[in-house]
Model the fold of this input.
Amino acid sequence: MDAAIVGGGIAGLWLANLLHARGYRTVVLEADGIGGSQTLASQGMIHGGLKYALSGNLTGASEAIAGMPERWRRCLAGGGDVDLGGLEPLSDRYYMFATSTALGRLTSFFASRTLRGRIRRLEPPEYPAAFADPAFRGVVYELNDFVLDTPDLLAALLRPVADRVYRHRLLPGEVTPADGGCELRLPGARLRARRLILTAGAGTGALLDHLGIASPRMQLRPLHQVLVRHDYPHPLYAHCLTGIRRPEPRMTITSHRDGDGWLWYLGGQIAGDGVAMSDAELADHARRELAACLPWISWERAGISTLRVDRAEPEQTGGRRPDEAFAAAVGPTVVAWPTKLSLVPDLGDKVLALLDPPRPGPAPRLELPRAGLGRVPWSRP
Done:
């Protein structure tokens, strides 16, 4: 077998599709449900990095990701690295807004030639429905970013490779180096794989320790996100820049179907600040932030809950956010983290560059249960 992929989140399934299309014999082992605890907790944004440039300057982080929306759009059109034809975005555009037109140097930065084609200031007749209220007196920009429904994305990626994706939690003692590759001792089978590709998110840490891999190391970057259930009829996909105090969105909003209505999912500065808050403290803080960012909407009847998420990433100095996707080979093991949903195509490039050409033959068939799709956190009891 050419490769055993451990982890059935966005990274594992994307790589399974890439390798399958290129003739690699692969299997994917997923411990629980497809999408795990990280992919399905993401906001689904495919963005070009401008939210990392709110200091008024392009940065390494903003430019490392700048080309990703177009790569994803080619996939949605059926002509990219992975065929996602037929997958419809939740929103084909993303927005930035502020309740005042006074954005200081950002106004001229957003209008600069360097950002042409990446951001556009809208006129009121072009505003999405959430900003059409006469009480809104601010500014709205349109980005070339978009939002995918992560369960739909995972389902689209699972279909072509479903016959090689299994539900099994690979324990550290079940894998050992062997003959230039590795041996996996699974229930009912022993597999020899030329490459072991670790895409298990937080689960990668224990496997690195067992395999004696001292570098790269993993870090967990915590977030405390906010779920808002309300009766407002319009979805919203936008970064709030009202009164920002540091170069990041005050609030990043995505909307997701929740029964007959919309649930708003909040990230950005509020999710970082919320790490130090209790659930109740963050819920109270979120209600105040919503009133400050979207004062024309009544939030009195909104139900607010919170969700703690740990993002598994390659270790960085000071625990900072990585700028790029990461893949490194240590012997027969490839350690991979996309670091952001948007950067998954870049992760694919990096992993393919580490692999030898495939060898002919069928992929093994295992006596293990098939892995099914997990559920988004807000659907869980």
The chain has nine helices and 19 strands. The chain has a mean pLDDT of 93.
